[in-house]
Design goal:
Layout lengths: L2 H17 L5 H12 L15 H17 L5 H23 L6 H34 L4 H21 L1 H26 L9
Helix pairs in contact: 1-4, 1-5, 1-6, 1-7, 2-3, 2-6, 4-5, 5-7, 6-7
Length: 197
């Protein structure tokens, strides 16, 4: 493989991993479709993702996840479940995109890059939804759910077609959200010498 092939594979993995921060199952479904249609060759150990049963399960899970975010209260509860799930999905997607690397390197990059990117995006969307719930009583949450659904689908499709472009956008999004989350954490930290219990 050439350097460009490695960059493209890494870009694909990062783009799909970041999209799993919006919706866990959408990029997994996109990868499954890409494997089944021959658009991508499945990596060793990930052939299961390109099977009809996997496609059926992922399609069902995708529809259920997307619709559940329109249900009040359930949407906020889902954020607590999908935060660790998105980390796992991001790790799998990044790892599966790097078939020609040593397994230790693949899984290391999967966890550090893919899992982290998915986790940061999911944390950002969860905080945004929590803020929307607090300020609008949840009335704006369906709008957020629609935007997240669209971003997940469009990002996954574009990640398959233009992996390097989407990877660049994913890096910018992760950096932006990381800074926002960091600032929020600093604001919530008690001041030195504070007597708060």
């Amino acid at each position: 493989m050439t350097t460009m092939d490695y960059l493209t594979a890494g870009g694909l993995g990062l783009a799909l991993a970041a999209c799993s921060g919006f919706r866990v199952f959408v990029p997994l479904l996109a990868a499954s479709l890409a494997y089944l249609t021959g658009f991508l060759a499945p990596s060793p150990g990930f052939e299961w993702l390109g099977t009809w049963p996997a496609l059926g399960v992922l399609a069902t899970a995708t529809a259920a996840e997307m619709l559940a975010y329109y249900v009040p209260v359930v949407d906020n509860f889902l954020d607590t479940i999908t935060t660790p799930a998105s980390f796992v999905a991001g790790t799998l997607l990044m790892t599966s995109a790097l078939p020609h690397l040593d397994p230790l390197v693949r899984w290391g990059l999967g966890i550090l890059v893919g899992g982290s990117a998915a986790g940061v995006v999911q944390s950002g969307t969860a905080l945004l939804r929590a803020g929307s719930t607090a300020t609008t009583g949840g009335l704006a949450n369906p709008v957020l759910a629609t935007v997240e659904n669209l971003l997940a689908v469009a990002g996954a499709v574009l990640g398959l077609v233009l992996p390097l472009v989407m990877a660049g956008l994913a890096v910018l999004l992760v950096l932006y959200l990381g800074r926002r989350i960091g600032r929020l954490a600093l604001r919530r930290r008690p001041a030195p010498g504070s007597t708060d219990a």
